[in-house]
Amino acid sequence: MRQSVAPSRISHAASLASQATSVVAMSRLHEKKKEFEAVAALERASALFLKRIEGLADDCEVMADAGQVHGQVLEQWPAMFRSLSLFLNSREQHLADPNDDTLPLTGERLVRVPLDELQADASKQP
User: Which residues of 16-52 are buried (b: 16+ CB within 10 A; e: fewer)?
Assistant: First the structure.
């Protein structure tokens, strides 16, 4: 009697089905790997973009602080011109009439005060 080939056909069909499933699973795994790599690349690009934006924000803060300092300096110019004008007017009056002793020149000079040194000395004192 001849042996039946039905059991081998079933196992062969099961083998083909498992191979097809394996190929589908490998294809799906490959797609998921590509998707993961794309997400990882997006995450790296986002981190780099965030770092650049934070750098820009820091630069903007520095520029804003510099703008405030410039504003404070510009705010002082009218007082400086007023002081110079007073000094020049008193000097012109004194030069116009050197015999007039009613115009005291003492205390009417511009003096540069070394603020950095004074502040450094003040910070050293307890």
Answer: eeeeeeeeeeeeeeeeeeeeeeeeeeeeeeeeeeeee
Determine the residue type at 5: V
**107 phi, psi to nearest 5 deg:** 80, 5
Q: What are phi and psi of 14, to 5 degrees?
A: -65, -40
pLDDT in tens, the chain (126 residues): 556 554 555 566 567 667 778 888 899 999 999 999 999 999 999 999 999 999 999 999 999 999 999 999 999 999 999 988 888 888 787 777 766 655 555 556 667 778 888 788 777 775
Query: Based on the number of CB atoms within 10 Å of its own CB, is 94 exposed (0-12), middle (13-18) or buried (19 or more)?
Result: middle
- Cβ-in-10-Å burial (0-12, 13-18, 19+) of 63 comes to exposed
Phi-psi sector, 106: left (phi>0), alpha (psi -120 to 50), beta: beta
Question: What is the Cα–Cα distance from 45 to 77, expressed in whole angstroms?
Answer: 48
